[in-house]
Here is the input.
Amino acid sequence: MVLTPAQMACGLGAACAVGTGSYFALTRSSGDETPKIKLSEQLVKDGFTLLNFEDGNQAEWTTILEKYKAGSKEKFEGLNLLGDGEADHANKNIASLKGFCKALVGATDFSKSYNKARRWCVVPKKVSEIFTTLKKTVLKNEDSQSENNDQWKIKIGSYDGKALPISGVNWSQTGETEQIKALKKGCKDLFAKDVKTYDDAFEEDYRTAERWCIAD
Here is the structure.
């Protein structure tokens, strides 16, 4: 059986039936009467920029293709890429990715497919760039900057002591001032990472930054 990109994007024989999933996607109960929107609209609402599925964004598509080939998660079922030795393989593979993305973002039930689209169908951006698009306020994280210290105190006060808020942050220090300093450094280091929407670490970094590094 030959499947269309739309069928492949939703899964073999599936009609895009999905459960709960993405941290960005809308969560709806079976009885929710909220009008459904397309995945493309949700992505834009969440601060992402869709790639052009016809012409344009060639450099971005080339990067996406290489990251897709190197990755092992959130792959498109049924997408078979040409090998490097085959004629015009790069352009043909990009065209295939575009077809799958175009089909995927038109869906209205997408909690299982959201992360695929977020990784492979949008302009690559860092966590900080998404927050800028969403007009979220990143707390000042230089030691010399004290204007957001009230917000940093709120963050520290919400710490439950069960796990370090950010990888590499050592909260063994006593005293609010030292804890603020440590958390600022953790946030600064997180935003300095070159992690983008196509990377495995993007989701965790986004969640962490939103929880600890963004104004409430």
The two ends are 51 Å apart (CA to CA). The chain has two domains: 5-124, 128-212.
